[in-house]
Amino acid sequence: MPLSAVDRPQLLPPLAPDEWPQEIPVIVVGGGPVGMSCALLLAQRGVEVLLVERRDFEFRLPRAHLLNVRTMEIFHTMGVADDIYRMGPDHDRWHKVAWYTSVDARTPYEGLKIGEVPAWGGGDDRERYAQASPRRYANLPQIRLDPLIHAHASAALPGRLRGGQEVRGIGQDEHGVSVTIVDLESGAIREQRAKYAIFADGGRTSNDLLEVEFDGVTAIRNVTTYHVSSDLSMWSEPDAILAHFVHPSGHGRRMGTMQAIGPINYSRDSEEWLVGVAGWMLEGDPEDHATHDRAIRRLLNLADDHPLEIHSINAWTYNGAVAQKYRAGRAFLAGDAAHRHPPTGGLGLNGGIQDAANLAWKLGAVLDGRAPESLLDSYQQERRPVAAYYTAHSLENANRHPPIAEALGFSDAATVEDEHRSLDVFLGTGPEPEAMRERVRTAVAANAFDFSQLNVEAGYHYSAGALLPDNSPLPEGYESPIVFQPVSRPGHHIPHAWLRRSNGGTEADPVSTVDLVAHEGFTLFVGDEASDTWRRAVDGVETTLPITVVSIPHSEDAWAAVREVDSSGAILVRPDWMVAWRVLESPPDLRTALQDAIDLILRGGARPAEDPADPFVERIRVAAERIAGLEIRR
Ligand SMILES: Cc1cc2nc3c(=O)[nH]c(=O)nc-3n(C[C@H](O)[C@H](O)[C@H](O)COP(=O)(O)OP(=O)(O)OC[C@H]3O[C@@H](n4cnc5c(N)ncnc54)[C@H](O)[C@@H]3O)c2cc1C
Question: Which structural domains are found in the chain, ordered by start?
Answer without folding.
Answer: 23-62+139-214+323-396 (3.50.50.60), 402-446 (no CATH), 467-602 (3.40.30.120)
